[in-house]
Amino acid sequence: MSPEKEKKLKKLRKQLDNLDNSFIRLLKKRTNLVNQVLKLKDYKNQIIDKKRIKIILNRIKKKSIKNNIDPKITNRIWKNMIWSYINYEKRNFKKK
Question: Could you give the number of structural domains in the chain?
Answer without folding.
Answer: 1
